[in-house]
Write a structure and sequence with these properties.
nine-stranded mixed beta sheet, eight-stranded mixed beta sheet, alpha+beta, 38 strands, 21 helices
């Protein structure tokens, strides 16, 4: 077969990910697809993956993708005749301390939101399920009978066979040596002296993806680590299971271990705390079906843990210590999507040791994105647009990625933060915050102050009442009744200028942008289906000049959407995030303190107005709005004058508040947040933001919302029991059925209990008097749904809800109103 000179889509990489993308593109009807593999299919990480597939995951997106993968792997053999090795063995996850038990129980509860049932068992039952383990320190476990395993190479071959049958052309031993662009857009791939012109190029080549993406000027921040597991020779205890019988997958996360039977012996792997990074220049260019050198000195501490948990290993002969490279990302979530820098170039990688489990679902999601031109499901946590070019710094990757692997089995406590590659992006007032006792977390490369109690008020972390509760309570009080500084400098800032700036923004944004100078508009940017792509405020500074403020980490996303929407509009937009600090000033005394910093009068602003202001020796402008929902301002100060403004505010009597305080107040006020309540699969009416849509302006997504009657809504929730401490994603029950999930949660200092926002099913049909149909999965009976919908839409507070947290259900009440209004008399 001869290499073509043109293809609609070229996929680089013949591992399980590349094969899955090719298969799903072809299955969706895409023609003229070429897949290029520099060696043989299944080479790279695929061939030495352990093949474990667990359904229960810590997020809704991952759970959905993996469940699809499992269904697909069971069907592929029938379709293609190629076995995948899918075997439903179940999995057993051990807990040897209370926090681990809480964490795995939380995953059980999350699974119930998707109809996945798992069983919490005691040590005796765990021993029955895995007879070879020692359980004297086990305090509980979770048995997930629907989990299993596959043969990774066979899965990739089955996917490639299905792709070929649908017309995909696959070329092995074909190394890509360059990528071509036409303007900003991808135009083709080079294989030596041969060029394949292409409309789209997909990079899915594992360890090499970052380097291949760089050929086109695209950023793909991932890095490789060494990953270890041992294989033993046959053991009579495993042979005694009988032919075709298998042990469940074993997860002993407190000991950093996983294990399964393998060819009558055992496979035992680890995510060791002190992982080893792998610069790619250590690998030969033809590294393919190869392994790294054994390193027993490095593996011995994990081997000691394994001998303790599985005593039979003491007599086992080790067949090999497998050391294979894998790629990881900065935040331990994989990445996929269209490159923000290079249109038409799609990227997928950094699977963080979940590639086999995710391959089916993630390949389908990527194929649908390529065809539709935008995501077709909620993928925010995996969306490549969460990474800015600044995060693709090799020094940061080399420092952070070994920690990512080493903390793979960490409990996901609230307040947990990575410790490496810190200080990359700092606010202009960072030094002042640090001197004031700020505790920082690394978020999107920025150092963000979460509270001002320092280390003493932060550690140890817990799933229960956190150590910082009292400290944050003082900060909340200042935000309400005093004057508190909240550093919001990480918010994105995009300047929009040009003769068509107003018309362009009216097309881009759902709200009316033809506002007077000095006004601020709150809006969303929507996709064609009416889903929220960004949540923003927009200031009009002149006839042809606007400033857009986005959430932290949304600049790349916003700029990409703006470039895609620009068309013939005469407009330019520039990222000016680094040019300005944003100092939130919240509280009843905010104006008084602001006036004390300056001899010039503070302008008398109404809500959503802004005007020039002097703060000490600094000059900027003040906007009358606050993300806390309390009285206050946002002060926009040029970066070089930010410390002068900050020092003046401190001298005038302000205190400090961090993200935990603003988060509590945000949720009480019912303010929505992107990646929590808002996302590409959520419409403004579902989020209770329909009033901000200016119908008739021709904004993107307007047609999809014209006759849109939301079948679900965001509600505020107040718990009855102060012992209930939700985090996010917990299932919400009504009438004994799952009706939604928590999207954000925090401690309410107003009520002395947890408050939350949640997305729940709210069947339509109420206004017509007709009973609504029960939603798929049976959340409501028609009568029950009508009663609930009627009560909530009438503005009533409804009791009878329950939220399941770590397998315990807590009573709660709900309202469409903000918590601080809805529950004021509770």
């Amino acid at each position: 077969m001869t290499l073509p000179s043109h293809a609609r889509t070229v996929i680089i990489g013949g591992g399980v990910i590349g094969c899955s993308i090719a298969y799903h593109l072809a299955r969706e009807g895409r023609k003229d697809i070429v897949l290029l593999e520099r060696s043989k299919l299944t080479s790279g990480t695929t061939w030495h993956a352990a093949g474990l597939v667990r359904r229960l995951r810590p997020s809704a997106t991952l759970t959905k993708l993996i469940n699809y993968s499992i269904d697909l792997y069971g069907e592929l053999e029938v379709e293609t005749g190629q076995a995948t090795g899918w075997t439903q063995t179940g999995s057993l996850t051990l807990a040897t301390n209370p926090d681990r038990l809480t964490n795995i129980k939380r995953q059980v509860s999350l699974g119930r939101a998707f109809g996945l049932e798992a069983e919490v068992v005691d040590a005796a039952r765990a021993k029955e399920l895995w007879p070879l383990i020692e359980t004297d320190d086990v305090i509980g476990a979770v048995w997930s009978p629907a989990d299993g395993r596959v043969n990774p190479s066979d899965v990739a071959l089955a996917l490639s066979k299905g792709a070929r049958a649908r017309g995909v052309r696959i070329f092995e031993d074909t190394a890509v040596t360059g990528l071509r662009r036409k303007g900003r857009r991808i135009a083709g791939v080079e294989i030596g002296g041969h060029v394949i012109e292409a409309d789209e190029v997909v990079i899915a080549c594992g360890l090499w993806s970052r380097e291949v993406a760089a050929m086109a000027g695209a950023h793909m921040p991932l890095y490789a680590c060494e990953h270890f597991y041992i294989l033993t020779k046959p053991l009579e205890e495993v042979q005694a299971l009988g032919k075709g019988a298998h042990l469940p997958t074993l997860n002993d996360q407190d000991a950093f271990l996983y294990a399964r039977d393998d060819v009558e012996g055992l496979l035992v792997g680890c995510f060791e705390p002190h992982a080893k990074g792998l610069p790619l220049d250590r690998l030969p260019k033809d590294f393919s079906f190869d392994l790294l050198d054994e390193d027993w000195d490095h593996f011995i501490p994990m081997m000691e843990n394994a001998l303790r948990r599985i005593p039979v290993l003491k007599k086992a002969e080790v067949r090999m210590l497998l050391n294979g490279p894998e790629s990881f990302t900065l935040d331990s979530q994989f990445m996929l999507g269209e490159s923000p820098e290079v249109p038409g170039l799609f990227l997928m990688g950094g699977m963080n040791s979940t590639g086999i489990a995710l391959a089916g679902g993630a390949g389908k999601a990527m194929a649908e994105w390529i065809i539709a031109g935008e995501p077709t499901m909620e993928l925010n946590e995996a969306d490549i647009r969460r990474f800015s070019p600044e995060m693709n710094v090799l020094g940061a990757l080399e420092a952070r990625i070994p920690e990512v692997l080493g903390r793979h089995y960490d409990n996901p406590y609230p307040g947990r933060s990575m410790e490496t590659a810190r200080g990359q992006r700092r606010s202009p007032i960072h030094a002042g915050l640090e001197a004031a006792g700020a505790r920082f977390e690394s978020r999107g490369g920025w150092e963000r102050a979460v509270h001002f109690g320092g280390k003493e008020a932060h550690l140890p972390l817990t799933f229960g009442a956190p150590k910082w509760r009292e400290q944050v309570g003082r900060e909340v009080e200042a935000c309400r009744n005093g004057a508190a500084i909240l550093d919001q400098s990480a918010f994105g800032k995009i300047m929009v200028q040009g003769p068509d700036s107003c018309a362009f923004l009216n097309h881009l944004c759902a709200a009316q942008m033809d506002i007077p100078e000095g006004r601020i508009a709150y809006s969303q940017i929507l996709n064609r289906k009416g889903g929220v792509e960004s949540d923003i405020t927009v200031q009009r500074h002149g006839l042809e000049t606007y400033l857009m403020i986005t959430g932290a980490g949304e600049v790349v996303r916003g700029l990409k959407r703006m470039r895609e929407t620009k068309g013939a509009f005469r407009v330019e937009f520039t990222d000016v995030t680094s040019g300005f600090a944003i100092l939130g000033l919240a509280g009843a005394k905010a104006r008084e303190v602001l006036q004390a910093t300056s001899n010039a009068p503070v302008p008398d602003l109404k809500r959503f107005q802004f005007a020039p202001v002097e703060v000490g020796l600094a000059r900027g402008w003040a906007g009358r709005l606050s993300y806390t929902g309390e009285e206050g301002y946002e002060l926009y100060i040029p970066a070089e004058m930010a410390m002068a403004a900050y020092e003046a505010l401190v001298a005038a009597g302000t205190t400090h508040a961090g993200l935990y305080a603003s988060g509590s107040l945000r949720i009480e006020s019912g303010f929505r947040a992107f990646s929590h309540e808002l996302g590409p699969g959520t419409t403004p009416p579902e989020a209770g933001l329909g009033e901000f849509c200016a119908f008739g302006t021709g904004f993107v997504g307007e047609d999809a919302l014209q006759d849109h009657i939301p079948e679900r809504r965001i509600v505020s929730i107040l718990f009855d029991d102060p012992e209930a401490i939700p985090i996010h994603d917990e299932p919400v029950f009504y009438g004994g059925q799952v009706v939604g999930q928590i999207t954000s949660a925090a401690w309410s200092y107003r009520y002395g209990r947890s408050v939350a926002l949640a997305m729940i099913d709210l069947p339509s049909g109420v206004t017509t008097g007709q009973p609504p149909a029960a939603p798929p999965g049976g959340g409501f009976t028609p009568t029950r749904g009508r009663e609930l919908s009627s009560a909530l839409l009438e503005g009533k507070t409804v009791s009878g809800f329950e939220v399941e947290i770590a397998c315990t259900r807590f009573a709660a009440k709900a309202s469409l109103k903000p918590a601080k209004e809805a529950f004021a008399h509770d």
